[in-house]
């Protein structure tokens, strides 16, 4: 690790994640551009057009996970850079459901390669602070969404410039993270450092505890990203500027993840997940019955809930199932994004045929299930800790 510039690599990783996150916020703003009052797509069609952002992410994670060990973190990072660049250009040229679908697919693949390469790199660089540093790295997912939401609001609502200008701002963090990674020595993954064989890695992802965490990842990711990705339509009747609510939610998430170290010290990862599920459930229900300024109160509760979901799920696997390696982290991330690709069209159908409130009420079923699941996990981990100490 002596010849590795950890600070520069971590900064580059954060910029890559900012690029990823900005695409989420900007895509949320594009919903109105391509929707019934713009290009003319239905909410369900937009759900299908946006779905590749998530299943493309999943494909890249599943492919990239094993390849990180084989090809190295550096090559996967540059694959992320190239597919990001292609996706941004294609988005600028999009004018239909099909062209938007293809552009979103490239963006999703780029986002997936970022996570496939950089989650194991952070875990490898900070072996004694995995959950803390993964949370600190993932500060920049909500942080990037805040940036993207404010850029979208400023460019389109305040300056009244074209949506292409908004999309073009993605080139700024893209170029910066490319420069930061250029010519740098990058560490091997933790699995390679530990000398864990491919056979053991693949067998480890079939362990019951890992499969349980994958199932929970389906629900945590859908609860968080399924809601925030469609917030422009979900809250357009409740507030005048839904993108500001999105920025508000992700601002809270960024602050929470920044101070995750103190939270981890007080609560175990399983305890964090249980409390997250409770707050997420309450927040989603409050969003169905509030409007105006009270929407921000409901959004605060929801934000507290989803803040630690994604990085703590990854941190739990990295800490308690390290033999699953980069593949384990990739399967987790891929499962989460794939679940969102499934839920977006369902939410769109509900909004087309019933109401946004009904869509939110339906989404609240997911954290309700998680409350039961994480309560069981918390009890299991406490018993396991007691057995290990004995």
Automatic annotation (TrEMBL):
Q: Please report the record's description of how this protein sits within the membrane.
A: Multi-pass membrane protein
Going by the UniProt record, its keywords in alphabetical order are: Membrane, Transmembrane, Transmembrane helix, Transport
Q: Where does this polypeptide localize?
A: Endomembrane system
Q: Where is the Major facilitator superfamily (MFS) profile domain?
A: 1-385
Q: What is its main location?
A: membrane
The family database entries (Gene3D superfamilies) matched by this protein are listed as: MFS general substrate transporter like domains
Q: Does the keyword Transcription regulation apply?
A: no
Instruction: Supply the SUPFAM superfamilies for this chain.
Output: MFS general substrate transporter
Q: Name one GO molecular function term.
A: transmembrane transporter activity
Q: Which GO terms describe its cellular component?
A: endomembrane system; membrane
Q: Which Pfam families match?
A: MFS_1 (PF07690)
Protein name in the entry = MFS transporter
Residues annotated as transmembrane: 49-69, 76-94, 100-118, 139-156, 162-183, 204-221, 241-260, 272-290, 296-318, 325-347, 359-380
This chain's source organism reads Seonamhaeicola sediminis
Q: Which domain of life is it from?
A: Bacteria
What family does the database annotate?
A: Belongs to the major facilitator superfamily.
């Amino acid at each position: 690790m002596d010849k590795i510039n950890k600070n520069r690599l971590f900064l580059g990783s954060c910029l890559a994640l900012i690029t990823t996150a900005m695409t989420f916020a900007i895509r949320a703003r594009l919903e109105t551009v391509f929707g019934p009052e713009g290009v003319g797509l239905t909410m369900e069609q937009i759900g299908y057009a946006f779905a590749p952002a998530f299943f493309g992410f999943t494909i890249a994670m599943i492919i990239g996970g094993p390849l990180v060990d084989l090809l190295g973190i550096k090559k996967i990072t540059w694959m992320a850079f190239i597919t990001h660049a292609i996706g941004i250009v294609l988005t600028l040229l999009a004018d239909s459901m099909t062209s938007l679908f293809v552009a979103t697919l490239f963006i999703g693949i780029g986002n997936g390669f970022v996570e496939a390469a950089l989650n194991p790199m952070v875990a490898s660089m900070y072996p004694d602070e995995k959950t803390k540093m993964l949370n600190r790295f993932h500060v920049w997912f909500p942080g990037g969404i805040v940036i993207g939401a404010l850029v979208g609001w400023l460019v389109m609502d305040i300056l009244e410039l074209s949506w292409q200008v908004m999309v073009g701002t993605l080139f700024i963090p893209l170029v910066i993270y490319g420069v930061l990674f250029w010519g740098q020595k990058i560490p091997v993954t933790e699995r390679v450092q530990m000398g864990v064989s491919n056979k053991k890695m693949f067998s480890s992802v079939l362990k019951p505890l890992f499969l349980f965490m994958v199932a929970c990842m389906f629900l945590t990711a859908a609860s968080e990203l399924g809601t925030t990705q469609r917030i422009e339509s979900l809250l357009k009747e409740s507030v005048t500027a839904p993108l500001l609510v999105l920025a508000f939610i992700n601002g809270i998430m960024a602050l929470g993840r920044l101070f995750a170290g103190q939270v981890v010290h007080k609560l175990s990862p399983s305890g964090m997940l249980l409390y997250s599920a409770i707050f997420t459930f309450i927040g989603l229900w409050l969003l169905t019955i509030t409007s105006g300024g009270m929407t921000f109160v409901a959004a605060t509760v929801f934000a507290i809930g989803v803040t630690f979901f994604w990085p703590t799920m990854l941190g739990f696997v990295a800490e308690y199932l390290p033999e699953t390696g980069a593949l384990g982290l990739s399967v987790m991330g891929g499962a989460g994004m794939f679940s969102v690709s499934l839920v977006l069209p369902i939410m769109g159908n509900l909004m087309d045929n019933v109401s946004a409130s009904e869509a939110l009420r339906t989404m609240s079923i997911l954290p309700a299930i998680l409350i039961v699941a994480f309560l069981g996990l918390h009890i299991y981990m406490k018993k396991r800790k007691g057995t290990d100490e004995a």
